[in-house]
Design brief:
The protein has helices spanning about 15-25, 65-75, 95-105, 140-145, 155-160, 190-200, 225-230, 250-255, 275-290, and strands at about 1-5, 30-35, 50-55, 85, 90-95, 110-115, 130-135, 205-210, 215, 220, 220-225, 265. With about 290 residues, the protein is of the alpha/beta class. A seven-stranded mixed beta sheet has the order 3-2-1-4-7-6-8, with helices on both faces. A three-stranded mixed beta sheet has the order 5-12-11. Helix 2 (about 65-75) crosses helix 4.
Length: about 290
């Protein structure tokens, strides 16, 4: 598979980049990253990336918004017809077999594949889907983001600057549509909103793949940084105090190796939970190396 990541120098997110890249590369996948920085860390050039794009921050837009959109922009600049999957930098896929099979099945009929819209049903964000694992071709990324081949991240930002209109014919709550404005504050911006709006606007025919047991933003098959979500689903062996551990217990490791969890969105920052996160990544490698 082709995975695309992005980040800036924010210490909440940046330290995860190395772990994610090394995990995906160790399992034989293609990995690309867009890095928004005016003072790039030297270590970034040592990562085993198949493609790295370092982008200087663009005046007039919050850098966090630039970092969010950089992954889709990077995917849009590939000159081929392959499928590219966006991942959050602070997320580790666990069930590679599940994602690969899901993409393979959906791609027989659709060339835009989304995951997790079922988790937004019944909320004010109905109609959206999770950005993580969003998969399509470079041409479709260009269409969605209003950017040409050899276009820039700044072109993407300018295309959605000041966009506050809504699609009145959509029956669901619409307030989230204003969150696609790239001139918003970071806390008021959502790339999920931007992508969902463009898909509604252009009436793309897409695959909406459900995540199992994903309801009201709670995903049962995720090692979640919010311990209360794991408590809510009564996941055995995972509950209050999990992220204060240094290592997995044998029962916890067994649940990962048995394939119960699809992904992991670990507690942040990485440096505070390094030992446990590294142990989880080792278990992911063991599961997928069998």
């Amino acid at each position: 598979m082709n995975f695309v990541l992005s980040c800036d120098d924010n210490e909440i997110y940046y330290p995860f980049l190395k772990k994610a890249v090394e995990l995906y590369k160790a399992l034989g996948h293609t990995v690309m990253a867009a890095y928004v920085s005016d003072n790039p860390k030297k270590e970034i050039y040592d990562l085993p990336l198949d493609r790295l794009e370092v982008v200087a921050p663009i005046d007039g837009y919050e850098i966090g918004i630039q970092a969010k959109l950089a992954r889709g922009w990077l995917a849009s600049q590939m000159d081929n017809e392959e499928l590219y999957t966006l991942m959050d930098v602070d997320q580790f896929l666990i069930r590679f077999d599940w994602l690969s099979a899901s993409i393979e099945k959906a791609s027989q009929e659709f060339d835009i594949i989304t995951f997790g819209s079922n988790g937004f049903k019944g909320t004010d964000h109905q109609g959206k889907f999770a950005m993580s694992m969003f998969t399509t071709t470079p041409e479709n990324y260009r269409d969605i983001l209003n950017v040409k081949l050899n276009g820039t991240l700044e072109d993407v930002l300018e295309s959605f600057a000041g966009k506050q209109d809504m699609l009145e014919y959509v029956d669901w709550p619409k307030a989230w549509m204003k969150q696609r404005d790239t001139k918003n504050a970071f806390s008021d911006f959502s790339d999920e909103s931007l992508y969902a709006f463009r898909i509604f606007e252009e009436e793309y025919d897409i695959a909406r793949m459900d995540l199992p047991n994903f309801n009201l933003f709670r995903f049962a098959h995720r090692l979640d940084r919010s311990e209360n979500i794991m408590v809510y689903y009564r996941n055995p062996h995972f509950g209050d105090g999990f992220w204060q551990q240094d290592k997995l217990t044998e029962d916890q490791r067994k649940m990962i190796l048995d394939g119960f969890f699809i992904d992991c969105c670990p507690a942040r920052p990485y440096t505070k939970h390094e030992s446990l996160i590294d142990d989880i990544v080792d278990a992911i490698l063991e599961l997928n190396s069998e």
